[in-house]
Amino acid sequence: MEMSKTYDPKSFENKLYKEWVDKGYFKAKVDSKKEPFTIVIPPPNITGQLHIGHALNDTIQDVIIRFKRMQGYSTLWLPGTDHASIATEVKIVEKMKKEEGLTKQDVGRDGFLERAWAWKEQYGGRIVEQLKKLGASCDWSRETFTMDEKCSKAVNEVFVNLFNKGLIYKGDRIINWCPCCKTALSDAEVEYSEQDSHLWHIRYPLSDGSGEIIVATTRPETMLGDTAVAVNPKDERYADMVGKMLILPLVNKQIPIVADEYVEKDFGSGAVKITPAHDPNDFEVGLRHNLEVIRIMNDDGSMNEFAGKYRGLDRVEARKRICEDLQAQGYMVKIEDYKHNVGECYRCHATVEPIVSKQWFVKMEPLAKPAIDVVRKKKVEFIPSRFSKIYFNWMENIKDWCISRQLWWGHRIPAYYCDDCGEMTVSKTAVAVCPKCGGKHVRQDEDVLDTWFSSALWPFSTLGYPEKTDDLKYFYPNSLLVTAYDIIFFWVARMIFSGLEHMGDIPFPEVLIHGIVRDSQGRKMSKSLGNGIDPLEIIDNYGADSLRFSLVQGLAPGNDTRYTDQKTEFSRNFMNKLWNASRFTLLNLKGVRVKEMGTFRLTNADKWILSRLNKAIKDITANLEKYELGNAAAKLYDFVWTEFCDWYIELAKVSLYGDNQDKKVNTLSVLVYVLENILKLMHPFVPFITEEIYKNLPTTKKSIVISSWPAVNKKYNYTKESGEFAKAMEAVKAIRNMKAEKGVAPSKKIKAYFIASTINPKDVSYIYKLAGVEHAEFLQDKSAISEKIVSLFGDFGEIAVPLGDLVDAQKEIERLSGELAYTQKEVERSQKMLSNQGFVAKAPKALIDKEKEKLISNQEKARKLQLEIENLKNS
Predict the structure, then answer these.
(1) In the structure, what pLDDT confidence band is assigned to residue 800 with cuts at 50, 70 and 90?
(2) Which tens digit of pLDDT belongs to each residue from 152-175?
(3) Which of 149, 343, 773, 781 could bond 352 through an S-S bridge, CB–CB 3.0 to 4.6 Å?
(4) pTM
(5) Are the C-beta atoms of 168 and 160 separated by less than 8 Å?
C-alpha cells in the first residue's frame, strides 16, 4: 500500500482503534506461561470530561502497558469509572431544579436514584469514549463502575467484616461538615486556604466579681456553645482561678475554668474558650473534663434553638450581630486583623464547620500500622521516593476515618434498624425481618459511604473479590499504580491498608507519582484563569499521537510539567518527519524484494546505524523499565530525527541513487530493518502513526500492538567500524560548517585535500555526496599544495580546502573591509568613553568593566579581519 503524501491522523486514528478493539488486542488472559503485568486505572468520575490531567495520567499508563505487552507479559490495564457521590449528586440536584423545578425532597429517595441512574447511563460513558480517542489500550471487556453489582458486593463484604472486627463503629464525634452539600467530609476532603480575618478578644467575667479572663477567638459565633474556659495547669497566672466559674457573655450562664495540658500558656492570654460541639480539640478537652456538648448550628449553617435570639440567622450574619452585641455590652476588648488557614469543602469550596455528629467511622490505628510498615520495608515503593514522606506524614497522624455521608447517591450503609425493638443489624445482604424480635418494621441506614471507601477496594474489587476468581489469583497484587501526587492520602494510602487487611497482601509493589500539567507560565489550570486546555481539541487539530508525545516531553517522575502549543507543534513536526522518512523508504521499495539481515555485506554506514540502533534499544528500554518516560522520549527523538532521518537516510541515498542494484537492495534492507525497530520503539508513545506505517512494511504480518519489543543484537555492535565511520561524518559536518561560515551555498561543489587522513577510503563517497565535494586528493602533507587554503582539523586528521573554491576574493575583501571599518569605529567609541574621566568617575563598575571587555574584543576582531584581508590580497 502506498502511504499518502501528507500525515493526516484523522484519516486513520479512529479506524485503527476500532480494529484493535475488534480484534481483541487489549484483552487480558490468565496465562500460566506468562508473567502478569497489571495496572488499574484511577477511575475518573462519571461527571467528568477528559481534561489535560487525565490525558497525562492515561498516556503514562498506556506507554507502560504497551511496552510491557510487547515485552511478552500478560498485560491487564483495567478501566472503569467512579460514581463520585458528592459531585454526581450536585449535578443531578442542579439538573432537577433547572429542568423540573424539583428538589430531592420533592421526588424522594427512589425518584432521585431513578434520575441518577438515568443520568449515569446518558453521561457516565463520555470520558470512556474520550479515553479511546487518546488511544488507551484498556481491556474494555472488563470495564467496571464502582456501583456495579460486583463492586457493591465487595463493599458490603468489607464493611461487615470490619464491623465484626470492631474496626467500624458508629458514634458522636467531631466531624467536618459542609453546610452547602449538607454532608460529612473526611479530613482528606477538606482543603485549606489562607484568608484574611480577625481575632476578637472577649472579656469573660468571673461569677464572683473578683476578676475576668480575656480569651481570643477567630469564631465568635461559636461562643454560644462554650461550656468552659481552659488554662494550662502550670500557668501561675490562673492557678487560683481553676475551678471557679465564669459568666458566658450574652448567654449569662456560668461555665467552669478547667486546667488542661492542651493549652499553650505562652500563646495569647494563655486562656482558651472551649466549645466541644464545634472544635475537634475542644471536643477532646470536653471528654477529659466531662463537659456538656452544645451544638448551636443546623446542618445548613444557620443558628439553631440553642443560639437564643440569634436562632435562624446564617452563621455569617450571626457573627456580625454577636460582635455588635459584645461591643455594645462592653465585652469586646479589641479586634485585630488576622490571617489564618480556613478549611473548605473540596467540591463546593464552602467553609467547613467542625460539628459534633453521630456518624460511622473506621478505626484507623490498627489498619495504619501495617500499611506504614510495608512502605518502610520497601515492599511498596514510591517513585520518586520523596513522596513516601507525604504518605508517612498522613498515616502517622491519621485520625479515625468518617465514612458516612448524608447523601442518596452511593453505596448505602448496610446497617438495618428495627423500629419494634431498637436492634441494629449489620449485614452483607438486605434485612427484612429483625433477627432479634422477628419484627418486620426494619429500615436501612439513610447514609451512604464515602466515595473513597469503594475506591480503596479498586485493585481487588474489580477482579472479583470476595470470590476467589482466577483473575484475582493471577492479577493481584497489581504490578503498578500510576497517579498524581494530590491523591496520595485520598486514595493510595487507603488502597494499601485495604489490600493488606482484606487480601493479606499489598495491592501493588510500586507507585509511580506524576505531577500536574501547568500552563506555559507555570500556573495551575483553572476555570477562573481561563487557561484550561481541551485535549479533544488538540487531538482534533494535531492528532492523538502529537498530544501524547508532547505530554511526555521533559517528563520526570513526580515533577509538574508545562503544556505549551509549541510542544504540540514540535511533536506534530516529529510525526511529519517520521511519516516522510517512512514514505521515502516505501517509495524506494517499489519492485524490490528486501533481503534478510545477515545475508549480505554491510557498508560502514550500515554498521554505524545498526550500532546506534543497538544503543537506542538498550537506553530506551532501560529508561522505560525505570518509568523515565521523558528520558526515553528524548533519546527516541534524537535517534530518529538526527541519526536516522538526518544522517542515515542521506547516507543511504549514495547507494539508492547509484547504479549498483545489489547495493541499493542491501541499503533498502537495512533501512527497512531499522525503520521497523524504530516503529516498535516509538509505538508505546505514538501508537497510531506507528501502526499505520508498520502495516505497510514488507517485513511485517501482524499488528504492531502484539509485536515483540526490540532486543539488542550483539552481532550489530560494530564499535570499531562505527567509530571509524564517525570520522567521515565529522568531516562532513566540518565542511558544511565552514561553508556556512563563509556564506557559501551548501550545493556549491568544492575540492578537498585530505592530509594524513584517518578516514577509511571506502567512506569518502559519503563525503562527496553529503558535503558537496567534487574532487578529493589524499596527501601525506601540504607541501604539494600551491593554492591558498583553509584547513579543518578533527579526529579525521586535516582537510584543506582551496580558498578560491569558497569565496570570490575581491567580493570577500570588500565585505571584510566594511566589517573592519565598523569594528574600528566601535574601538574608537570605547576608547573615547573610557578616556572620559567623568564617565569613569560616575559610572557603575560593572558598566565600566563591560565597556573594557567590548574594547578588547573589538580590538582582537579588528586584528583578525585585517589579517584575513591581507591574506586574500596576497592569494
Answers:
(1) confident
(2) 999 999 999 999 999 999 988 888
(3) 343
(4) 0.82
(5) no
What pLDDT score was predicted for residue 385? 94
Q: How far apart, in whole angstroms, are the C-alpha atoms of residue 38 and residue 510?
A: 11
How many CB atoms lie under 10 A from the CB of residue 862? 18
In DSSP notation, 347-387 reads TT-PBPEEEEEEEEEE--HHHHHHHHHHHHTTSSEEESGGG
Q: What is the CA angle 492-493-498, rounded to 5?
A: 100
Model pLDDT for residues 410-461, shown as the tens digit of each residue: 999 999 999 999 999 999 999 999 999 999 999 999 999 999 999 999 999 9
Which residues pair with residue 37 across a beta bridge?
A: 75
Whether the CB-CB separation of 203 and 168 falls below 8 Å is answered with no
> Which of 131-145, 344-358, 643-657 is predicted least confidently?
344-358
> Would the CA dihedral through 619, 625, 631, 636 be positive or negative?
positive
Q: How far is CA 298 from CA 146, 283, 344, in A?
A: 32, 18, 18
* Lookup: cell for 417: 434498624
DSSP assignment of 699-731 equals: T--S-GGGSPPP---GGG--HHHHHHHHHHHHH
Cα R_g (the chain), whole angstroms: 38
Q: Give how far Cα 138 sits from Cα of 129, 510, 623, Å.
A: 12, 20, 23
Q: Give the integer Cα–Cα distance in Å for 57 and 42.
A: 9
Share of the chain above pLDDT 90, in %: 71
> Using the 8-state DSSP alphabet, how is residue 188 labeled?
G
Contacts of 758 (CB under 8 A, 6+ apart): 727, 795, 796, 797
Q: How far is CA 152 from CA 155, 461, 821, in A?
A: 5, 9, 86
Pairing, β 271-274 against β 80-81? unpaired
Would you call 122 exposed, middle or buried from its count of C-beta atoms within 10 A (0-12, 13-18, 19+)? Answer: exposed
**Three-class secondary structure of residue 424 per DSSP:** strand
User: What does the DSSP 8-state code read for residue 510?
Assistant: E
- Paired sense of beta strands 168-178 and 144-145, if any: unpaired
Alpha-carbon distance 376 to 506, whole Å?
13
> What is the spatial distance between Cα 710 and Cα 639, in angstroms, rounded to a whole number?
15
Residues 6 or more apart whose Cβ sits within 8 Å of residue 872: 803, 807, 809, 812, 813, 816
The DSSP bridge partners found for residue 194 are 341
Q: Is residue 221 within 8 Å of 322, Cβ to Cβ? A: yes
Q: Which residues pair with 341 in a beta bridge?
A: 194
Of 812, 827, 814, the closest CA to residue 861 belongs to 827
- CB atoms under 10 Å from CB of 114, counted, come to 12
- The continuous run of DSSP H or E covering 601 comes out as none
Nearest to 799 by CA among 746, 742, 749, 728: 728
Report the alpha-carbon distance of residue 551 to residue 125 in Å, rounded.
24
Q: What is the DSSP letter of 314?
A: B
Asked if 510 contacts 387 with a C-beta cutoff of 8 angstroms, the reply is no
Q: Which amino acid is at 780?
A: Q
Distance CA 672, CA 676 (A): 6
Residue ranges of alpha helices (H) inside 414-515 are 451-455, 458-461, 470-475, 493-503
